[in-house]
Design a protein that fits this description.
By secondary structure, the protein is an alpha+beta fold. It has 4 helices and 8 strands. The radius of gyration is 15 Å and the shape is globular. Bound molecules: zinc ion (ZN). It comes from Pacificibacter maritimus.
Length: about 140
C-alpha cells in the first residue's frame, strides 16, 4: 500500500481541484476521486470539482484515526475530540453518501462538535435500533 497522505500538505483556506489535490498530496487523481466517493465533501455542481483544503484535512484525519481505533456500535467519530463519541440524544441525521453507504451526522455529547460516521446501507436497520435516524434527502452536509 502507498503511504498516507499528509493532511498538512494542503492549505485549509484554499480550494483544490482533483489534480491540484492529487499533486499536493502526492496521490493519483483516481485516489482523490475515490475519497470523494468515500465521503470527502466536494463541490460537484460544476466542473472541475472543487474541494476545500479544510475538508481534505478533516477527511484524512478522520480516515486515519478510524483505522487506529474502531468505533463502538453506538458511537460516531467526533472531528474535534478525534475520538468515538455518542451523539446528543442518540439523534443523527442520515445523508446519502454513495449508493452503497450513508453518512450519519450528530452532535458530540462531549464537546458539541460535529460527529459523523459512514455506514453501509445494508446495516442501516441495525443502526436504527441504536440511533434516532432522521433522513435528509439533501446530501449536502
Ligand atoms: Zn467531541
Amino acid at each position: 500500500m502507498s503511504k498516507r497522505a499528509n493532511p498538512m500538505a494542503v492549505k485549509a483556506a484554499l480550494t483544490y481541484d482533483i489534480f491540484e489535490a492529487a499533486k499536493a498530496l502526492d496521490k493519483s487523481p483516481a485516489t482523490i476521486r475515490n475519497w470523494i466517493k468515500d465521503g470527502l465533501p466536494a463541490m460537484t455542481s460544476s466542473k472541475p470539482y472543487l474541494i476545500s483544503g479544510a475538508d481534505i484535512r478533516d477527511y484524512l484525519r478522520a480516515k486515519y484515526q478510524a483505522s487506529k481505533s474502531p468505533l463502538a456500535p453506538d458511537e460516531l467519530r467526533c472531528l474535534s475530540c478525534r475520538a468515538g463519541r455518542r451523539p446528543v440524544d442518540m439523534s443523527v441525521v442520515a445523508y446519502l453518501n454513495t449508493p452503497q453507504t450513508t453518512r450519519l451526522h450528530g452532535v458530540c455529547v462531549r464537546c458539541g462538535g460535529r460527529a459523523s460516521r459512514i455506514i453501509s446501507n445494508a446495516k442501516r436497520d441495525e443502526f436504527a435500533q441504536t440511533f434516532q435516524i432522521k433522513s435528509n434527502a439533501n446530501s449536502d452536509a
